[in-house]
Specification:
The protein contains 16 helices and 20 strands. The protein is an alpha/beta fold and about 475 residues long. The strands form 3 sheets. The protein has a 12-stranded mixed beta sheet with strand order 8-7-20-19-18-9-17-16-10-15-11-12. A 6-stranded antiparallel β-barrel has the order 1-2-5-4-3-6. A two-stranded parallel ribbon has the order 13-14. It binds adenosine-5'-triphosphate (ATP) and magnesium ion. The site of magnesium ion has 3 residues, from helix 4.
């Protein structure tokens, strides 16, 4: 085995100091022999170069004097643990001895302790362990039951990685509904024609044209999509209030119900225009508000005589994209509120297959501060969805701005580069087992490398995201050609 240095100083159970005899990189996996349990997997968490050069001698160097410098590379190493016969990861109960040899860990030990199976075809294959050829596969059941989040600054590679995950879900015939505010995911239909490092990752270009359904409330702008509408007759007064953006149910429910009854009695095939006319004729402050909000709903064109049916929207083993490109933010919220509520209620009654609900730009739909009309239902799904086979995936560039109760329910987290200190703090608070070194490493992650926590793994690990089999729809726009 390849020795990299020796343990020195006070030795703890969870971490120790390492004097390095050769340079290695932060995040590298190491091994130390434990007297009782054999090789134990460890990871270099931080590096420091210590020297005896003081200020005066440094000054002398500036003035051309020669002075010998004694220096040492010192590391702090976290102990990950060992496994016995495929059992859980355990940490030795007696600290290692000072002076003990530290080796570079071999792939067999890394795979065994981290729980990485070699070329297994189960799970969602998201990439390779950084610097190795070991596959990182997320346990799809864990994603479902414990929810998931994808966090990174803008341009950090969230949508790319989410595309990878959706490809995997589709391969495993998992039903998904994706709230797509920028209309980025339609490209899942097409095979990736610029698949750079596909060989190392063993990824073949593949399109999912027959498995991707796209809907949009605005099909003039989003031409490839089917219209997404809600039928007025199937929208009960409470939902209509949601569409109208009226949260004070107590004030408005009675008058709205009365109005609906009146109009329905006159014409069972009533339209939103009939409702508007009836509200216009009525008097009173409450009805004026109702009138104004009904006109607003009419403008959104969300209500149609025949709304999109649930069986059209959710199809087993397919991904339904809800393309909200060009839709006003408050209308987007209404659509998400309505869809999320319908999916949750229908899952409770087992009317639709278990499914994964993906919310892109989730800080807008479940904000920590302020309100969004869909916030409450998303919080409900985050806390109770798993009981009913409704998995939630939230994607955001602002971890600090998404509702904390939603974020804390996501037990699988995929974190790409994050630099904002508030976002880093929010992430550090919501993840167990994140070391100070890892939090620092998140700030310098290159595009395409993610920190994976959960997903069936007991230890956080860094993963090089595999290339997409499908085309990525969120390419950064070049203003000046290069
Ligand atoms: N794993 C990867 N391999 C190669 N290129 C990548 C990878 N991840 C991201 N990119 C590239 O980086 C750019 C930004 O990626 P992406 O659109 O996923 O960012 P984002 O985090 O979703 O940003 P935003 O918050 O603005 O939506 C894209 O041009 C994409 O092609
Ligand atoms: Mg994106």
């Amino acid at each position: 085995m390849d020795e990299v240095g020796r343990i020195f100083g006070d030795v703890g159970l969870g971490a120790f100091q390492l004097s390095l005899s050769r340079p290695i990189e932060r995040g590298d996996y190491l091994a130390v022999e434990d007297e009782l349990h054999g090789l134990v997997l460890c990871q270099l968490d931080s590096l420091n170069r210590k020297s005896d050069l003081d200020m005066e001698r440094a000054d002398a160097l500036v003035h051309g004097a020669e002075t010998p410098i004694h220096e040492n590379l010192i590391g702090v190493v976290q102990v990950i643990g060992y496994r016995e016969n495929g059992g859980p990861v355990k940490v030795p109960t007696i600290p290692f001895r000072p002076g003990a040899k530290v080796f570079r860990a071999e792939e067999g030990l890394i795979a065994e302790v981290l729980g990485l199976k070699k070329h297994a075809d189960s799970g969602a294959y998201v990439g390779l362990l950084r610097g190795h050829s070991l596959r990182v596969e997320l346990d799809i059941n864990a994603l479902f039951q414990r929810h998931m989040s994808v966090l990174a600054k803008t341009g950090g590679g969230k949508s790319y990685l989410l595309g990878v995950i959706i490809e995997e879900l589709l391969r495993h015939k998992v039903t998904c509904v994706i709230i797509d505010p920028h209309g980025e995911y339609g490209s899942l239909r097409f095979a990736n024609d610029k698949n750079g490092h596909a060989e190392r990752f063993h990824v073949q270009p593949q399109g999912f044209a027959s498995k991707v359904l796209e809907f949009s409330p605005d099909t003039t702008l989003n031409t490839g999509a089917r219209p997404l509408t809600f039928s007025l007759r199937h929208v009960d007064p409470r939902d209509l209030l949601v569409f109208m953006g009226l949260t004070n149910v107590k004030n408005f429910m009675g008058p709205l119900r009365k109005l609906l009854e009146e109009v329905q009695a006159a014409n069972p095939d009533y339209t939103i225009k009939d409702l508007i006319r009836a509200a216009e004729r009525s008097e009173g402050g409450v009805l004026e508000t109702i009138h104004e909000r009904l006109e607003y709903v009419d403008q959104t064109r969300l209500l149609a005589p025949q709304g999109t049916s649930l069986s059209e929207l959710v199809q087993e083993g397919k991904a339904s994209l809800v393309n909200l490109r060009g839709i006003a933010p408050d209308v987007q919220e209404l659509v998400v509120a309505r869809i999320a509520t319908t999916l949750f209620e229908s899952r409770k009654k087992n009317k639709i297959p278990p499914l994964f609900l993906v919310i892109e730009e989730a800080h807008n739909f479940a904000p920590q501060q302020g309100t969004a009309s869909c916030s409450r239902i998303l919080k409900n799904i985050a806390s109770e969805g798993r009981k009913f086979g409704l998995g939630l995936c939230v994607v955001t560039q602002r971890a600090a701005r998404i509702d904390k109760s939603v974020l804390s329910q996501c037990n699988t987290q995929l974190i790409l580069q994050v630099t904002n200190p508030l976002d880093l703090k929010a992430i550090a608070q919501s993840i167990e087992g994140l070391t100070p070194g890892m939090t620092e490493m998140i700030q310098g992650l290159p595009v395409g490398t993610a920190l994976v926590t959960g997903g069936g793994y007991q230890t956080p690990l860094f993963c090089e995201v595999r290339p997409r089999a499908t085309r990525h729809g969120g390419e950064s726009v070049r203003v000046v050609p290069n």
